[in-house]
Amino acid sequence: MGIRLSEHRSYVIRLLQDEEFLDDSKQVLYLNASEFEKYQNVVSKSFNKSTYRFLFGRNDSFYEIKADYCIGIDWLGNTGRYLYVEPKLNTNSAEVFNQQLDQEENDAVQDLNSERGVFLELDYLSMLLQVTSVHESNAEVKDLVQIDWDVEQIPIDQKDDKLTPFLIVRFLQTLKNIVRKGLKKNYYKVQENLNNRIKGKILIGQHIKQNTYKNLFTATYCQYQVFGEDHIENRFLKKVLRFVISYVENHKVLLSSNYKVLQETIRYCRPAFELISDDVSENELNQIKHNPFYKDYKDAIRIGSHILKKFAFNITKTSSEKVVTPPFWIDMPRLFEMYVFSKMIEDNPNSKRDILYQFSTYGNALDILVSKEGSQMVIDAKYKLHYQNSHLHQDIRQVAGYARLKKVRENLKVEDDSNIDCLIIYPDIENGIEDFSLANMMKNRIPIHAYHKVYKLGVKLPLIS
């Protein structure tokens, strides 16, 4: 049994003490004493230093599960239940987030039944496609997903599987980069029954079986090396590509508007593998030594291994309506900041060198630094909806601190005591910008009046209609 949550929402588990407390609300689960005790050992799980997979709080009469800024699925300890956090944002989010902000400040559980609004599903696949389609942002894609392969997998409906589409998009975009550069050539072994000649070394056992017993005295079974594209790595990529093609064709509705984009990528990649076999064993794959010059190959093989493991190496499972998935989590704050970076690079083709991602100094890494004259600013991308009608002082202190770093001022060539502009970018479903040109960003940013030279700017995110 699962508990379903949208991003940033909470779920309360209460002890059933009397029938009068029964409620049909989907945000509250009532349990008897024995079931309630199972949650005593459940703890919050962290994703990284700043983000949690989910937060778990306890009280004498209730437990509270709160979704943080990740989407995914995971077991709730040994309770037999799992938590599923889906990528949905509330169109009336300003009111809800203000309530949640008050909740954090007062350290109390609010009445979740009071939250109202229309929830729209965030198209995280379109965001990932955008990030991986821009060279500068694709080079920074890492640590976006965590997968726990060592625990029992969770049975879910295929439509609720957020991991497989994510892996498939990553694989296809990485494979597209490989094909664009040209498939790697390498030495690989070929076994062949040659007539009237010998090449490489003779395989005695195979030669006796294939030729001597059959009185084929002019044939010799040999093994030799060939330099070309039909080596083990390319064979593995073709095998994964077959699984990916099957999945994409069987889930057009699930992939929504991303289906056409994925189809175009498949059509781009498929011809390069026409003359390559897909005959490869897992033992051969373990013997691969990755060349650091071919970084895309290492990433594609790693992601491809996840895909094959997800389907248990059985291509018929790509069309199943019921599937199992390992616990996994996708880091939405990082995906959001990389989405913003990719859009800025795409919409400012003449200023790419002036837009720096993860500019770091003395252990501090700010999201985006713009050094173009006339548009100089420090940008912090926050995957939070508080900023539609309010702001968080802690975030402003953070971005203002980045602007005071000496290395930042030196990079922007600020020699006097003037302050550098600070900009906080946040999701705004209804009124956010879609044009990420520096001129448009400067024009539409809104000053935060309580602070000097600190601004905020909402950006639209792709949604599934």
Rounded mean pLDDT is: 83
How much of the sequence lies in strands comes to 25-35%
Note the main sheet. Answer: 6 strands, mixed
Number of helices: 15
User: What is the helix content?
Assistant: 25-40%
The number of distinct β-strands equals 24
In the CATH hierarchy, what is the class of the largest domain? Alpha Beta
Separation of the first and last Cα atoms? 28 Å
CATH architecture of the largest domain: 3-Layer(aba) Sandwich
Radius of gyration (CA) equals 27 Å
Low-confidence segments: 93-116
CATH topology (fold) name of the largest domain: Trna Endonuclease, Chain: A, domain 1
Output the strand order for the largest sheet: 18-19-20-21-23-22
Provide a quick synopsis of the model.
The protein has helices at residues 33-37, 93-106, 124-133, 135-138, 163-181, 204-212, 232-250, 252-255, 258-269, 282-286, 295-310, 332-347, 393-403, 406-411, 438-444, and strands spanning 2-6, 10-15, 28-31, 45-46, 52-58, 62-67, 70-75, 82-86, 88-90, 119-122, 145-147, 154-157, 186-195, 201-202, 219-228, 322-325, 328-331, 355-361, 364-370, 377-381, 421-427, 446-447, 454-459, 463-464. The chain is an alpha+beta fold.
Describe the structure.
The chain has 15 helices and 24 strands. The protein is an alpha+beta fold and 465 residues long. It folds into 4 domains: 121 residues, no CATH class; 128 residues, no CATH class; 43 residues, no CATH class; 133 residues, Trna Endonuclease, Chain: A, domain 1, CATH 3.40.1350. The protein has a 6-stranded mixed sheet with strand order 18-19-20-21-23-22, with helices on both faces. Strands 1-8-7-17-11 form a 5-stranded mixed sheet. α3 packs parallel to α5 and α7 packs across α11. The longest helix is centred in the middle third of the chain and has 19 residues. The chain is globular and about 95 Å long. The two termini are 28 Å apart. 32% of the residues are buried.
